[in-house]
Structures are given as C-alpha cells and as structure tokens.
TrEMBL record, chain A:
Biased composition (Basic and acidic residues): 438-452
Organism: Brassica napus (Rape)
Protein name (database record): BING4 C-terminal domain-containing protein
Per-repeat ranges for WD: 222-263
Region: Disordered, residue numbers: 414-464
From TrEMBL, chain B:
Location, primary (coarse class): nucleus
The protein, known as: DDB1- and CUL4-associated factor 13
Ranges in coiled-coil conformation: none
Residues of the Sof1-like protein domain: 371-457
Record localization: Nucleus, Nucleolus
Pfam families per the UniProt record, alphabetical: Sof1, WD40
Keyword set, alphabetical order: Nucleus, Repeat, Ribonucleoprotein, WD repeat
Region (Disordered): 421-462
Taxon lineage: Eukaryota, Viridiplantae, Streptophyta, Embryophyta, Tracheophyta
UniProt WD repeat ranges: 62-104, 106-147, 209-251, 295-326, 338-379
Family: Belongs to the WD repeat DCAF13/WDSOF1 family.
Compositional bias segments (type: Basic and acidic residues): 421-433
Amino acid sequence: MEVALEDNNLMEKVLPPDEQEIDVELEAKEKKYLRGEGANLESLKDKKLKTQLASREKLYGKSAKAAAKIEKWLLPASAGYLETEGLEKTWRIKQTDIAKEVRETVRDVAFLHNDQFFAAAQKKYSYIYARDGTELHCLKERGPVARLRFLKNHFLLASINKIGQLHYQDVTYGDMVASIRTGKGRTDVMEVNPYNGVVALGHSGGTVTMWKPTSQAPLVQMQCHPGPVSAVAFHPNGHLMATSGKERKVKIWDLRKFEEVQTIHGFHAKTLSFSQKGLLAAGTGSFVQVLGDSSGGGGGYSRYMSHSMVKGYQVEKVMFRPYEDVLGIGHSMGWSSVLIPGSGEPNFDSWVANPFETSKQRREKEVHLLLDKLPPETIMLDPSKIGAMRPSRRKERPTRGEIEVEKEVAIEAAKSVEMKKKTKGRNKPSKRTKKKKELVENAKKTFPELEHSNIAGKKRRIGEDAAAELPASLKRFARKN
Amino acid sequence: MRIKTISRSVDEFTRERSQDLQRVFHNFDPSLRPMEKAVEYQRALTAAKLEKIFARPFVGAMDGHRDGISCMAKNPNYLKGIFSASMDGDIRLWDIATSRRTVCQFPGHLGAVRGLTVSTDGNVLVSCGTDCNVRLWSVPRPSLEDSDLSSEKSTEVVHSICGLYLQECVILSFTSRAVDHQFEGDLFATAGAQLDIWNHNRSQPVQSFTSGSHSVISVRFNPGEPDILATSSGDNHISIYDIRMSSAARKILMRTKTNSIAWNPMEPMNFTAANEDGNCYSFDGRKNEEAKCVHKDHVSAVMDIDFSPTGREFVTGSYDRSVRIFPYNGGHSREIYHTKRMQRVFCVKYSSDATYVISGSDDTNLRLWKAKASEQLGVILPREQKKHEYNEAVKNRYKHLPEIKRIVRHRHLPKPIYKAKAESRAMNDAKRRKDDRRKAHSAPGTVVTESHRTRRIIKEVE
C-alpha cells in the first residue's frame, strides 16, 4: 500500500473544529490498528539497532494511520443498527416489526476448514463426511463423542467424549496429536477461544478449565459457578468469556485478569453465543435474549432484543452468523433464524473470509491455509508473545540491599514482640531473655542466602548489584555483564 | 424507530463478466485475524527454508585462458562484456550474458598483464604489464547481432601508441602494477615505482608522483571527484592524491599492506581497502584517524574488492579461495561463495546491474555467480515480485528468533576455512581474556583497549 509522505508541518496548524473532531475519531481507531504499545527503545545500547527499530516504529504508525483512514472513508458497507426514539425500548421490538435425515442420534456437528467437509459425532463413533454426504473417515479412537470443535489455524479437530477425555487430531495427515485425560468426569460443554486456540471445558463442579494440546495439565482452572456450568462462550477479541450456570446466573469474565466483570441474574441460559460485534445471545427454554454492551470494555451488558418462540419449542443452541445480522436458533422442532441488527461485521476481507467466493478462489484459499498451518505448540494463552522479547530476569531477584532491609525489619518485629508475663514463679528474667533471643534467631533464619554468603564470602561472585556496595578499591573486580 | 440490517447485493460484490478481474475487499481490523503473529512466524520459517532451497548462486565458468587470471575490467557502456587478462599476457573480451565465450582477443603483451581499465566512453582499453609496456587498445563496438558472435575474432592493435612503443620501454624502467582510468576526462594513472598520470594523446606522463622507496601497488580514481585518486603502496601506506596538487593529500600508515581499494559509488567520500591481514577497512576519505568499519571474515589476505553500483554491498576475493559479499556498513559477510575447483581468487567484479559477481582466479577460469543466491532471474510477474518482497520482509522481521536464525545464517564452509576460523576465534578469545585480566589488575586508566577501528592503523600522516 503506498503511503504518501505526510507533511508534518500541516499537523501543527490549528485545524477547524470539525476537522479536529475527525482527528480525534481517527486517533481512537488508530489505536486498534497499532496492536499494543510500541517497543521501549531507551534501554537499547546498540545505536544501529536503535535507529533501525525507530524507523520501523514510525512506519507502523504511518500504516496504522492509513488503515484508520481506510476504515473511515473507504469501507463499502456500514453496520446495522436499531435506534429507538423517545421511550421505546429495543427489546420490545419484535421480529414482525422488522420483516415477516441419518437416523442415529447425532450429538454434534462441526465444519472443517471450509464447507466441503464436516465431522459428525454420532452415537458410537464420529465420522467425517464430504459435502454431499459421502462418508470419508470413521474416527474410532475417540469413542462416543459429546462435542466436536475445529481449530481453524491449526487444522486440529478437538473433541470431548463421554469419559471426559480430550482428543486433538490433525486432519491434514490424520495423526492424533494429543489425548488428554481431564480427570474431571463427563462434560458436554466445550468451546474454542478463537483468539488463541485454547479449548475451554465447563465441568459439573462449576469449574471452567482451559487446555492446550501440548500439556497434560490444564492451563487455567477457574471456579466460575457454585453449580454445574451449562454454557461457555468467547468474545471474538479474546478478552471476554461468558459462562452460565444452573443457579440462573450468567457471568461475564475478563480473561486478561481472570476476574468477573459482570453478573446477569434471572435466567438459566442453556446456550450462549457472542457475535462479531460483541452482542451476546442467551437461550433458555423457548426464549432467546440478546444482550448488548453499552460500555466499550465489557461490563455493561443489558437487554438489547429478545425473541420468544412457540411454547413447545425448546431452544438447544444459538449461534450468530458471521458477517450477517442473523442469529440462528436450533430448537427441538428444527431450525430458525432471526434478524438482530448490528450483530455482524459489515465489511469482510476477501483474504480472510469471502461470502461470495468462487470455487477457484476456495481451492486457492485452501492451499494458502495449508501453507500457513500452525503447529500445535503455538497454542498459548497470550498469542502475541511470539516474537516478543523475553523480559530480563535481573529485576526479579531482590538485590542484596533489599534483602538486608527486609531482614532488619523482621528482626525489629521480632524484638518488639510483647512477651507474656508468666506467673507462679516461671517468670525468670534469664528465661525471658533466652526466649527473646530464640525469636530473633528464628527471624534471621528466614533469610538463608545472606547467612550462607557470610560464610563463603571469598568464593562468591560479586554481582553487578553488589558493585554499588563494594568499597572503592574493589570496584574493578565487580563482574561486568 | 430506525432499523437497518446488513444487506449486500450480489452484483456489488461479484464480477459482471468472466473477463473481469475478481473484486477484492479489504478490512484491516486485527480482530478478524486471530493469531496473526503465529501465522507470520510460520510464513517467515517457510520463506527462510524456501530461500535455502532456491539458493543456486553458481551460473557458469568461462574457460579459455591458459594461465591464472590477474585482472579484470568492466566496460561502463556495455553491460554484457567484461575484459580479463592473464599472467601470460592474454587479454580477452568475454560475453557473459548469452554465450559465456570469448568475443575477441587482444594479443601483444609479452609478460604478465598487471592492470586493465576501460575509459568511461567504452572505446579505449588500457593495459599495463610486467614487460614495462602500457598499451591502449580500441574496443570493438558491439554490433546489433550480438548473439551471432560465437566465433573468436582477433583484432589488430588499432591504437597502440605507435612509434612510441619502444620509447615506452625506456621510460617505464619499472613494471607497472596497476592502472586506472579517470571517470570523466582523458587521464589515466599507472602505478609502479612511481605514480604517473597520462593522457591518451601524449607519450610522456602528464604528472608524476614519487613517494619514497616502495612501489605503488594499486590505484583507483574517485567516481565523484574526477581529480582525486587513492593508491596503496608496498610500505603499508594508503595515500589519497589530488592530481592538481604536487604531493599526497592524505596518507594513512597501517600495519599491513593494502592490496586493493574501491570507492563507494553512492557515497564517493568513502572508500574500502582490502588488506593483507584478511580484513577490509572502510574509511571516510576526509577523516582518516579511524576506520568507519572493519569487515572481518576472510581467513587469508584479501586480494581484490569491488563495490556494487547500489553502493550497499561490496564483493571481495581472497587468497583463501573464497569470494564473500559484505554489506557496506556491516562487519560480517552476508554470503560466501566457494567451489572445490576455484583456487586463489585474484580479482572480482560486481556487474553493473548489481545482479552478478564475476571472479577470476588462479585456475584460469572466470566464474559467474549470482549476487543474491536465491534470486529468480529473468522476467518476473508483478505478483511474483510482490510475493518475493513479502517473503523477504517477513523473514527479516523474525530473523533474530533462533529457529529462523539458524536457517538463514547457515553456510557450508570448506574445511580449511572452517578450521582456520575456529582457530582464530580461539586465539582471539584467549587474547581478549588476557587483556581483560591485565586491565583489571592494573591501575584504572593505564591499560587502554584499542578499538578495532584504530587497531591496525599506525598513524595518519599529514
């Protein structure tokens, strides 16, 4: 993309107020494209590297500005909305206002990387079928599967079976990458976090555990609800997770701090789903409620729209359609879809997902996806860590000075303890002083490093931190790094 | 209330006829692209591996000389031709593009030819040799049917300084070691026991510089300033002369002698000197107390050096049978070329379109190499070009990570060079450790570590 060199002098002129407004808006959009803070170049000593990185950072800034401008001016479609006037509430608006086969039990279905293949978890085993229904593979290793999910970037088919085993299989060459015994029993609540590829399971004890294929122990275990977890859903930006429990609460969690952000009372949501724009759909009984976020960060979910079906229909699963303002509802009598304005992303990127793609484009895209297939080791809680600098460890260990200070404080605390005055002749002064000495010794014992170093003083390497404490004549022997 | 939902009409998003291009839409929102860094890393890894797969730098060898090749010259006006001269007096013009054969020969020298250069308009070839002759030849104009020139032709000496031939033997009572032509103008310089400046039409040197007892080994005119030239002499000096003045403008004394000098065509005040101790030193012509950069990678003496026309890289040929390509401001080579059949490399040239490197060596062959080993030659479609650029950029972004660094840095070295490098590394480590200890045990300030940029320079004169 050609980025014309901006004349920096223009930016310093005083702009008319509406242009200033546009500037502020553009800056807010720019933040999204900058993908986090810039690198800290002050601590670099290598001048060549510093100038190279500084010029690269400038280039990132320019490209973020250009992308923000494109988003503002050049994108072809705009999002849907539902605006009310006066005292109207959005949830009162009904759908009428807006417009007008295998004979076995199949527990779950999942599409693979495109719509040509799908996997079905049937009664005994799971099978992979082509689009027209021909059976391609029978996946016997997994046993009776309760849920199936596909990790798109890694080409992994993840499944949880009735015994509580988690299986990951690479569908490009059929290898079973991992089979993990979760140890928490049978569950059929499984979701994939699209931001980092981590699989979350909701258990009957109220815990949500997160797994990656390369480790046998879960990454995270969160106690979310007092009772069993009924449904889990992830926001597409990866920071928010919604869980619902049988005690009729829906909780919204922030995944960066693993803290609860919001609780919504009143109904037991059997199924949850987030849309591309952050709307949360919850289905209970024959009633579907869509919640919208009034605040940007995720704490302000409130009723946006609702839809109730005919009394006999039990809602099993809700799912938002990507790039459209449509919510699909799977219920006991079949499938229906409702319109939810403002839920889908209006502008698609042809290289990511093209609803209008031809078969030639689909075939090429498949090849490119395979070339970019990620190995299972890249699944981690924070995917932006790849390529980042390892934080320097030196600051973590407390310096010798700090340890000494802490030691002083502990000794002072031990000395100032009020000794209980004993009666009946047991209050001898010698015994009291002995007891006090014991307390001080115990306080000193909790700092074993210093103790040891006093003994083996000569052999100790004199660290950089200790250089400041050395007498001047010994400073030249401080170890340089 | 106002309601709007997303509605897309099919004709906006699909093409009308099958001859049209498919429509492409962009949305750069990062939330649509999960795990983009991991995908980029994967692409960088694939790009690094593909680069290694396609790395075939050797294009061909040109056989014909009967003795080791001593010098080469580029014709500034004709991209496909290169002149080479050997130790038995044989001068040839090669066509390196299509046929890799000799186009014509210039016989006449009786001994080894030591220097070759071409005038800027491409018409006159100047050669000098151990038989104390300096000869001027007229270069045949390339005809339109170049590809038909497959047979060897020998041309007569058209413009040898007739009548003065014998006289030259007398005047040049020394062998000349090098010759170079001015970039704009009619003057050329020969280096021998003294430095002489000649004009095409005169039989006596226009100007002479004598510089002590040692002979001048190499000479090079500055591409930016037509009157400035740099020379190196056998007593370890590098001198910069202005031909309008009567003595050297600047002189640098180093510890070992410099075999060859090349000026940076894009930054004409900087030059790089190929030294006998295996390093190349880049100097700023105006400030000579310390080198701008020391390029260390050769194991044995560096015999010749030439800059790329972009000014960003230079190629060196060394006595240790390898050809290396260095970045102009980096201390280590980015590429090494070697073959079992290539013996001591005496001269190298970077082609004028910055795509090829030509090396002439002791085994009588000229070898043609690609400057970028995995480059695709020929006409490249714009889509291919974009993909190459993307691969290059994404590989550079992650080239510090261990897996990718290992692939990008990996080169096979011939065993003698590998062993010599390991030995020199061990020696340098030991020396550095000892120096550190000596410094730690002396009073602060008495032991001064010399930086590499000044270490090999003894002093600057004038």
